[in-house]
């Protein structure tokens, strides 16, 4: 096997093992409880999960009787999402594609973008993402996001941290670019004494910047929390949980 192929296989193995640790019920069920309670979701609500990754949140919401569409650009994630859904007998509409082009217009009651999956693009393209999601929602629908923000990160900014996730040691090295407002992160995964690496770049918005962006996209009102337990959003909150409502 070529060295490149070996490392790609090792990285996928580390990433899959890391993802399994994220699939625990204790991480997923509270998020679904929060969404159902916040929006008083009726059974059979139409929900878009984008990007859905391996579908952990989509599957939990489908178990509760909702009609899910999971959208992601990565084929490997979708293969795993389909496999897990088949094992449980869940009917979910899995789509491969860009979350800036969600399927259908005025179709969904709720769109979710969870676990820090917002801000991958430029400001212009992030706006396009929000506008496209707004167009996919029915009147009165909601777009709910869980993400880091300036207020959650900078009071205790860590240039480096590590954690053990499901047998994978994850090292995270951060650099904030003040000119672009982006967090540049180098990830190192260590499994069985061997390493693989990845890089991510994400735009870090403040609460006000998020509200300004979503108003540009046509959303009319907002509810903001510091956690999925419904805590008020303050400087040094754990997360920005941001709910935007379409008129």
Series of H and E elements:
HHEHEHEEHEHEEEEHEE
Percent range of helical residues? 25-40%
Name of the level-1 CATH class of the largest domain: Alpha Beta
Under the CATH scheme, the architecture of the largest domain is 3-Layer(aba) Sandwich
CATH superfamily of the largest domain: Vaccinia Virus protein VP39
Looking across the biggest beta sheet, what order are the strands in? 3-2-1-4-5-11-10
Distance between the termini: 56 Å
- The CATH topology of the largest domain: Rossmann fold
* Mean pLDDT score: 91
Shape: globular
Number of domains: 2
Quick one: biggest sheet?
A: 7 strands, mixed
Number of helices: 7
Strand content: 25-35%
Poorly predicted runs of 5 or more residues: 1-21
Radius of gyration: 18 Å
Structural class: alpha/beta
Beta-strand segment tally: 11
């Amino acid at each position: 096997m070529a060295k490149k192929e070996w490392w790609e296989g090792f990285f996928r193995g580390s990433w899959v093992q890391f993802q399994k640790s994220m699939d625990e019920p204790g991480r997923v069920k509270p998020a679904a409880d929060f969404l159902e309670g916040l929006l008083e979701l009726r059974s059979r609500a139409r929900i878009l999960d984008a990007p859905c990754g391996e579908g952990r949140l989509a599957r939990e919401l489908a178990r509760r009787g909702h009609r899910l569409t999971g959208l992601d650009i990565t084929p490997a994630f979708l293969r795993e999402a389909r496999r897990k859904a088949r094992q449980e007998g869940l009917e979910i509409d899995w789509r491969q594609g860009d979350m800036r082009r969600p399927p259908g217009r005025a179709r969904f009651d709720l769109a979710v973008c969870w676990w820090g999956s917002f801000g991958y693009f430029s400001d212009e393209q992030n706006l396009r993402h929000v506008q496209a999601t707004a167009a996919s929602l029915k009147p009165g629908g909601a777009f709910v996001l869980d993400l880091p923000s300036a207020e959650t990160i900078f009071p205790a900014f860590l240039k480096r941290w590590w954690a053990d996730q499901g047998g994978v040691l994850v090292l995270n090295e951060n650099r904030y670019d003040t000119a672009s407002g982006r967090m540049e992160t180098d990830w190192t995964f260590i499994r069985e004494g061997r390493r693989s690496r990845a890089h991510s770049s994400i735009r870090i918005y403040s609460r006000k910047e998020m509200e300004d962006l979503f108003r540009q996209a046509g959303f009319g009102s907002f509810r903001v929390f510091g956690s999925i337990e419904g805590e008020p959003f303050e400087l040094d909150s754990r997360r920005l949980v941001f709910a935007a409502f379409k008129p």
